[in-house]
Automatic annotation (TrEMBL):
Reactions catalysed, as given in the entry: adenosine + H2O + H(+) = inosine + NH4(+); 2'-deoxyadenosine + H2O + H(+) = 2'-deoxyinosine + NH4(+)
Protein known as: Adenosine deaminase
Taxonomic source organism: Streptosporangium vulgare
Amino acids binding Zn(2+): H19, H21, H203, D295
EC number: 3.5.4.4
GO MF term set: hydrolase activity
Superkingdom, natural source: Bacteria
Record: residues binding substrate: H21, D23, G176
Cross-referenced Pfam families: A_deaminase
Biological role stated in the UniProt entry: Catalyzes the hydrolytic deamination of adenosine and 2-deoxyadenosine.
Family named by the database record: Belongs to the metallo-dependent hydrolases superfamily. Adenosine and AMP deaminases family. Adenosine deaminase subfamily.
Length: 359
């Protein structure tokens, strides 16, 4: 058996990230700086490592209230143009440092207007930050504009996603509590996006089960599923040990609908009991279009490289498996076909081949 890649080798690999929240990936020291500059006085700690530990412990607590409180603090310091530019720039820098060559980062513009910024000013500040942070670092960042599913601004945000799609916004998303807020509440926004030939993903099948996935695909026409981990509920293991796919699971696999899986985050939210028991193992074996993502790098104390290292340890994944996940992600990105192909053939495959040869 060949030796598994080390963490440092994985970090050097050209990776693709499709599911990462801007307000879930701030540097703790930046939160402290911005709180001081903006007068935000509610932080639970004002020393970098203590604050980092608080975010991780809160996310691991099993308390939904504590988990949601973490975002109150990150969003709380992201209310000025200067703060948004800095956070976006540092996001691009941190992802590039981790070996990410293409990332789609999402955020909800409506959550950053409490200090008087307009939605357009929020979007333009974030785009400025991504541009500054990615310059010369070998990374391209596309933006997903998110609407909150418990609010009623999805059409407005969808229209902005279309308006800014030639300025770095590559798609649309809805997020927030699934239970009680089905994606069909925002059907008008999804129908509008389809008429405009725009791309969108939907958070579905994380905290809520198969009905959420079914609605996201069959009613709303989602291009991808944010998480989608609960598709495992439609796969049963027979007495002979062979898995049998239900009709929805078979449809998702047959149509190659991408699943934006976030293993560590799924543990924190209770969608999986451990990395070794995460549905990603079976879904990879069954050749679903699975991708590996971070969700919230600060709260989960993770990176794309960390996620791959954990999966490698749990499932014995080597270079070929990691390349498979990465190509899946690049194929599923909201970029034009020729640009995806160029990154796959010109950057990703040669990068993995070089690392595999060196190993």
């Amino acid at each position: 058996m060949s030796q598994l890649p080390t963490f440092e080798q994985i970090r050097q690999a050209p990776k693709v990230l499709l599911h990462d929240h801007l307000d879930g990936g701030l540097r703790p020291e930046t939160i402290i700086d911005l709180a001081r500059e903006t007068g935000y006085d509610r932080l639970p700690a004002t020393e970098t490592e203590s604050l980092r530990a608080w975010f991780r412990e809160s996310a691991d607590s099993g308390s939904l209230e504590r988990y949601l409180e973490t975002f109150e603090h990150t969003v709380g310091v992201m209310q000025t143009r200067e703060a948004l530019v800095r956070v976006a720039a540092e996001c691009a820098e941190d992802l590039a440092e981790d070996g990410v060559v293409y990332a789609e980062v999402r955020y909800a513009p409506e959550q950053h207007t409490s200090a008087g910024l307009s939605l357009e000013e929020v979007i333009e500040a974030v785009q400025e930050g991504f541009g500054a942070g990615s310059a010369g670092r070998g990374i391209r960042v596309g933006t997903l504009l998110t609407a909150m599913r418990h609010q009623a601004r999805s059409m407005e945000i969808a229209e902005l996603a279309v308006r800014y799609r030639d300025a770095g916004v590559v798609g649309f998303d809805i997020a927030g509590a699934e239970a009680g807020y089905p994606p069909t509440r925002h059907l008008d926004a999804f129908e509008y996006l389809q008429r405009e030939n725009a791309h969108f993903t939907i958070h579905a099948g994380e905290a809520f089960g198969l009905p959420s996935i079914w609605q996201a695909i069959q009613w709303c026409g989602a291009d991808r599923l944010g998480h989608g981990v609960r598709i495992i509920d439609d796969i049963s293991v027979q007495s002979d040990g062979e898995p049998k796919l239900g009709r929805l699971a078979a449809y998702v696999r047959d149509k190659r609908i991408p699943l934006e899986m976030c293993p560590t985050s799924n543990l924190q939210t209770g969608a999986a009991a451990s990395i070794a028991e995460h549905p990603i193992g079976l879904l990879r074996r069954l050749n679903f279009r699975v991708t590996v993502n971070t969700d919230n790098r600060l709260m989960s104390g993770t990176s794309v490289s960390e996620e791959f290292a954990k999966l490698s340890e749990a499932f014995g994944y080597g270079w070929d498996d990691m390349l498979w996940f990465t190509v899946n992600a690049m194929k599923s990105a909201f970029l034009p076909f020729d640009e995806r192909l160029s990154l796959i053939n010109g950057v990703i495959k040669p990068g993995f081949a070089r690392l595999k040869w060196q190993a």
